[in-house]
Structure formats: C-alpha cells, structure tokens
Amino acid sequence: MSKIVYKFGGTSLATAENICLVCDIICKDKPSFVVVSAIAGVTDLLVDFCSSSLREREEVLRKIEGKHEEIVKNLAIPFPVSTWTSRLLPYLQHLEISDLDFARILSLGEDISASLVRAVCSTRGWDLGFLEARSVILTDDSYRRASPNLDLMKAHWHQLELNQPSYIIQGFIGSNGLGETVLLGRGGSDYSATLIAELARATEVRIYTDVNGIYTMDPKVISDAQRIPELSFEEMQNLASFGAKVLYPPMLFPCMRAGIPIFVTSTFDPEKGGTWVYAVDKSVSYEPRIKALSLSQHQSFCSVDYTVLGCGGLEEILGILESHGIDPELMIAQNNVVGFVMDDDIISQEAQEHLVDLLSLSSVTRLHHSVALITMIGDNLSSPKVVSTITEKLRGFQGPVFCFCQSSMALSFVVASELAEGIIEELHNDYVKQKAIVAT
Known about the structure:
Low-confidence stretches: none
Helix content: 25-40%
CATH class of the largest domain: Alpha Beta
C-alpha cells in the first residue's frame, strides 16, 4: 500500500475555520502521515516570550493562551489549553533562557497544534495515531538548528510498530542523543515532512499552504505572476535558496535522495491544482529561457580586491568570514576580486562594518548597503550571450549592477534596492510571461 505524507503550515491552522478545512482534507483523504506546524503567529510569540523580561512574559503568555482559547472556543470542543501552556510557567520565575530552554519553549507550538488537529479529527470519526516527533527525528546536539542523524533514524524507524492507518506528527522538532528537545530551524516543519517521507518510503509529499503552488514570481510583487505546473528539484532548490518563501530549502534533500515527488497546493483551494516538484524536470528546454524569478531585499554587497596589498587571497577571505560566523548568501571570485552578498536581516550592519575593517587591512574593500538580489531560474542561463543580454537590459536602469553567474539554471544580479521591483517586472513581462528565448 502506497504511503503519502501531508504537511500543513501555520496559515492553514490560523483559525478555527481553517482547522476545520484541514481536518476535512485529512478525514477525506486519510493520508498515512500528517505533519503540522504551530498555529500562525504562535512561534513568533514564543520567541518573544524567550526574549522578554519576566514581567513582559506574563503578558506574552496571556496572548499565547488567548490565541489558542479563541480557536478552541470557535471549534466548540473540549481542549485543555491551560494544561499545555502551563509548561511556560517555570520561565516566569527565572530570566535566563538557555538554548535547551529555547527549544523546549518553542516546541510548545507544534505540540499544541498536533494535539488540537488530532482532537478535531477524532470528533469527526477519524482517529489519528500520535507519532511523537522526538522519537523519530533524531539529531545532533544543536538545540536551535539541529541536523538529523539519518542512519540512526532509519535504524530506529524499523523498530517502530506502526499499526494504525494514519498518524499525526509535530513538525519542526526532534531530539538529541540525550533525549532532549531540539529544533530543526525556522521552516523546519517542511523538513520534518520530507524526512518522514524518506523513512516511510512514501510515494508522495503534499505541502498544503496558503497559495496553490509555486509562482513565476511572488504574486505580492507581480500581480499577474503565473503558477508553474512543474519544476525540477534543482530549480526548486535555487528558488528556495534565493528568496522564494514557499518551501524551506533543506526539506528538498530527503526527497531528492529518495526520488519522492512533492506537490505544493492550497489548503483553501486545492481543486485549483498546484506545482509538482520532480526528480527530473519534464519541461526542460535547450534554449535559454527564464522560468521563474526570485527577489531578496535588505541585502548588502561587499567587494574585496586583493591585487596589490598582499592579502592571502580567497582562502584568507574565506577564513575571516568563517571565523566571524558569516555565511554569505552568494559569492563569486574572479581576477583577484571577491564579491559576496550578505542578508541584512541575518548579519547586522555593525557586524558587516567590522568585517570590512578587517578585510581593509590587506585589500581594497567596498561595502554597498541597500541592494537587492534578483535570481533568474531557468535553462541554459550561463552563456556569455545570456549574461550580456540581461546586463544590457539592466543598463537602462540607473544604479550599480553586479552579476553572479552560478550555473546553467541560475543567474543572479545585485541591484539598487529601489530599482529591484521595476527590474523584476520588466524581466517578468519580457521573458517569463512571454516564454521568450533570452538570447539567440
């Protein structure tokens, strides 16, 4: 019997009405495994709880309880919200939050949502078994961004007695060798779903979200963006890594290893279809075409010229970046010049300025703030003719343009932030919408 894994994100669980839709889907389709995120906004509240003063934590706790109690009231089912949230009470007494405390606190969101969805399905006559994520997602010792130990997970999986037709599992969380709660990182519920799929040898993963698939560009930026019927894993990986927020990048690896297709669709309009992500792209083109665009705002670009000043070259620059915990979004090295992009939401301006001071000791270093990263995903985009064509088009916009040619499937540019949406719109209209060849 084939196994299918369903995953529902936080927006799919944001209200009582949404939870009813989710439970309708589960009770109708009866998937083998259901993975759920925390209710939308709850993880952010739990992060706020950790960073607040003792007095402020009481207020945040009331917000967390209130959000869940309102949903339970509208669902009209008995559910012990206060029993769950009582796990936070000890943290009203001591201010210090360790990494282990942080993981335990944030895991509450998924623990509650899994229990709540299970309770609602039970009232509709479908009893989901409960598969504790901490007994299945086994990881290293990092509390905030743990890495799964796949060999250990596979060995443990074969010892499980899974006798029920359908199970619910918390996303985002797992446990280390000591049995302590760990987190897979924000967005990790997607990762949980595909890891379960790999372990169970599932035939399909369905990601239910608030949009019906992957689009040629974020519809919030380009109103007439089009849904993409299918993508290869590599194309999806590039999109996810460079700004597309629908899927969490690491979640693709288990399905890539096991050859399991992913279907992305809407909880609220599933009949409109979605996007398939396959091991092999069935719509590959031998002409240079752009299939989709992604945009990352709030970036900074740093160029390092070590031609004259005796810097140890790329190896020394990489060493400095690593020693300061800086992982660039993108990097290119050419003719004794290294250029890299940093995400301002991850790396503070103060940390960037300190890095530039260090690099300037042995090189000519320039830092550009207020830039955006535009990435084009498609086929055969690495030729000089394609790069030249796109660069020439961008010359019509005032402001600096830096090019990063990554692979035949991905071509990125760094542009002035205020120009980014205009550039995206022109590229989308000229190449994506028209399905036009970029260069002949």
